[in-house]
Amino acid sequence: MAEQNTEAKLKNQLKQEKIQLWNPPYTEDDNQPGLRHMQELAERYALLLCLQVSEVGGALEAIRAQAVKRGKGNKTFRETNVATLELLLPRDSRKDPKTKSHLETRLDVLVQEVVDRIGEEFGLKSIKLILNGKTLCVDQSLETQGVKNHSKVMVLKVSDAELKQQLSEEEEKKKNQNESIQRTQKGFQILSERDGSEDPDTTPVLEIADQRGNPLKIPHKEKKALILAMGFHEKGRSLMKKKQFDNALCHLLQADQQFSKCGSALLSSVDNFAVLQLDIVWCYRALEALSCLDDGRSRLQRAEDCFLQCYGEQQQRLLMIKGNTGREEVLFLRLYLLQSLLSYIEGNDAQARHQLAKVESLYSRLCPDSEKMDQLMTLGFSEREARLGLRACQGDLQEAAIHISNQRQEREELKQRERQKRSRRMEVISTLAELGYSRRDAATALHHADGDVDKAYAILLDSAHAAQTTNNNAEGTGGPERLQQLLYLGFDRDASEAALRLTGGDVQSATQLLLDNQGVLSPELLSMSPPSTSSSSPSSEEPSTSSTSTADSELVNEVLEDISRHEEDYLDLTLDEESELIATMKSYLSRGRARTV
């Protein structure tokens, strides 16, 4: 990291002075360095940056050689499509630690061919290649896995046994990762569709709440995207806790994609989006994916902007809502720490020190006193409650105990209110169902009527009348009631009729078919024949429905395991990892400062 810092500073200085090291007098006609001019430049910059001449001279030559190499590589790539890759070889395989190794190759070749060439050229038997923290699959080409001209590829040695295991596990890992993402998405899709018509004691339903814990009213389409985003985020956070950062990053990026479907007004009212940006950059750091620097910088800026919108300029909005800001300050600690790291890598020591000073100030306040933690836990509070309580009350033991007790009571009262609200809703749905309507139709009508029973009944009457008068064509798909169920869910009439026709009138199967195809059926699907009904009967259909229901329940329970039962779990950082990074940053920055004294 120190070498990157020195090179970044020199590059900034060269850019300011518009010095091009790849041109004369710094590079001669035979691409060799102009020694006298390079030495003069090294001496001047060493004095300017308070660094040793030998260190600056070595860094300048590395920058010059890299620029010359890049220029030649660009020309070669334009003329022949042969790319130049920079290889980060194992330490004991480098002929000269200061000299970078390169390999020329076409990008349409399989990774296995490149592995063989590297092994032969550098005397390495069993190796694997890493790009941006991800292992390249040997049976795919370089370009399909994101390798470009001048990409930096890390070469890692593995044992023969490990290599064989890697080859067999690679496909399994990829399959499991894809399956994990698919299962997470399907599980939260099921949850996002639930409307409160189920028994609250047996069926979990996700509610989106504000910072006080009160449910938010959100349009159905945005609510679905937000639940999926939050689901992927929770799964990613669960994997981060297990130090599975590569798999975690896959889920976090899926969450980011779902958040993009939500309106800006919604994102500014919850802090989830900002926390996600922090988690993604934290994964970059853990994977040492420093090539993601530009993306990391923009994500941290988005996080900071979102925190300002959500909490207020001086966190006054947060103070008004929660009465204190201590717990959320850990998010700013991580934000400033990552900003400090990126500033250092970019060669901006002053900015890195400024951010790190803010980090250390926060850390001294937020790192809980172990003796006070023990005292609170002796009173029966959990470790999380003790940590969050002390942060909320600036370390005051008595205030923290009172605060935690009050929070427990508020949480219980909120649960009671929600349970009573759902029970009343269940009673109303049962009343409407007794009038001959399906429970789902009744729940949907009640939702559209904002809980007003009379309005819900009017909606059901109107829809039944409309179905009878306008939908004679739906008789072959199970009758107007089934079509109306799909229409209530927001699907197009033509697509709904086609889905019912293709599934033999099975509403559940038709719904899943429409969900899987985003509500639009392709010409290929429309041309398919409906299933044969010659041997079907209620008794033969029952096991299938039951099986589907059981599978859905298992899937939902699986994804819910990754959701913390505590709404402030994302604020409960122990700060152990942060402490290690703070120490690393201090050692690097003190190294630079010691030379300036």
Question: Can you offer a commentary on this structure?
Answer:
The chain has five domains: 79 residues, no CATH class; 78 residues, Phosphatidylinositol 3-kinase Catalytic Subunit, Chain A, domain 1 (Ubiquitin-like (UB roll), Roll), CATH 3.10.20; 177 residues, Alpha Horseshoe (Serine Threonine Protein Phosphatase 5, Tetratricopeptide repeat), CATH 1.25.40; 63 residues, Helicase, Ruva Protein, domain 3 (Orthogonal Bundle); 90 residues, no CATH class. Helices cover 64% and strands 4% of the residues. Strands 2-1-5-3-4 form a five-stranded mixed beta sheet, with helices on both faces. The longest helix is centred in the last third of the chain and has 38 residues. It is globular, with a radius of gyration of 30 Å.
